[in-house]
User: Fold this.
Amino acid sequence: MTKFSNLNLDPKVLKAIVDAGYESPTPIQEGAIPPALEGRDVLGIAQTGTGKTASFTLPMITLLAKGRARARMPRSLVLCPTRELAAQVAENFDTYTKYHKLTKALLIGGVSFKEQDKLIDKGVDVLIATPGRLLDHVERGKLLLTGVQVMVVDEADRMLDMGFIPDIERIFGLTPFTRQTLFFSATMAPEIERITNTFLSNPARVEVARQATASENIEQVVMMFKGSRKDREATEKRKALRAMIDNEGDKCTNAIIFCNRKMDVDTVSKSLKKYGYDAAPIHGDLDQSQRTKTLDGFREGNLRFLVASDVAARGLDVPSVSHVFNFDVPSHAEDYVHRIGRTGRAGRDGKAMMICVPRDEKNFDAIEKLIQKQITRIDNPLKPADTPAEVSADDAKFMSEDKPKRSRTRLRNKPKDDAPKAEVVQADAPVVDVQADAPKVDAKVEAPKQKHAPREQAPREQAPRENAPRENNNRNRSNRGRGGGGGGNNNVVGLGDHLPGFIAMSFEERSAN
Ligand code: AMP
Assistant:
């Protein structure tokens, strides 16, 4: 078995590795470290959880151990798609540079430019950044990338998903042609292939097994779920989620709950909280201090449920997450693999539970195809009687947000491609204050209904009784019309709209005769 000590790493780095408790390099480390130390470009095809961060940080530190940084000219650059990932990479540097005097700066959005400028002015050995913020600094004339000797692109496939590829290309162009490039991606989409062909020079290609095949210690289950009614599906889905959590009992020490949309991250988190579960949301629209606080709380075990979007949770490294819940089936099969990889880390057992509604079945099939495995179906923990009638006031409040806020009128009158816009309006809506939400929504017809969902149900249940006279009225009107007596006026003088059924009946009989 290869040992770290066989990899030509700096002795101080080796000491830090021992302190971190690692015994031997992971396959990506074993494959990527030697060519990186030789100064070669590396193309690493590996997912988070494989130890890929150390596979570039360890050789970088070894290479940067000699030499000094100049003001505003970092010696190396690591590009990450998200702030969280960037912060995690920075933490890795802290761990492995503990016996070095290397300096680093973290350039991410949501943090003041002033502090970041100060660090850059002093000169940094390692600059870790998200692409947008890095370019902001460059455009302000505060940063020069002409001194970059090593450039890392981490999670390139996620950069592609997030639309960062043009930024990455631009950044490549700002760094010297002679730089060394270490490039990591979980998958090799054609666009990623193009970038690597353009910017990497004869790279050492290191590919490690897909995480899907490595995660045998994760038990995977799915619940096929259909709401009792379309407009109640999301409410009932949340109820099903709570039932799933409850069924797991103490085995579920902590969990990440994934939703596909930021709006649902907020809604699910608020709803769980409301029902007494210790939950908090994390997604890209929350401010950085809040995100950091939530993540720290989860890492330290002070928060039990982290409700997250893919982007925010990407690359999150919390060693002991007992469960991952996929509240939604991810639309990219690879994301499923990433999501469930948050549990079952470092040889621990983990459990991944997913809810699949009918419209997600196609995506679900794609997941099973990718992982080449059938996910175990579990029963709906809710009894049928639990679902439609038992919508509590709290749920009704959330239910109002689940309803697409489009009136029939709107659908009829507006072109089809307007519909997604309505969802955008909804996505921005505050979660609890449905009233505050109402004026924003153009589906005015439905807004009051949403506010009073529980009360609204009662009349609906009584509908047959209420409707009976109305139906009679209609029949009466047409019958009167046919009888020719009423002309255009369907009302009977003195009875208004409320014509008793029996009068109509006798009228009908007479006219039939
Ligand atoms: P990464 O893929 O970089 O997100 O790393 C996943 C996890 O593996 C992190 O918790 C690392 O601390 C851990 N790790 C990295 N290298 C090793 C190693 N050689 N042995 C054991 N754990 C490691």
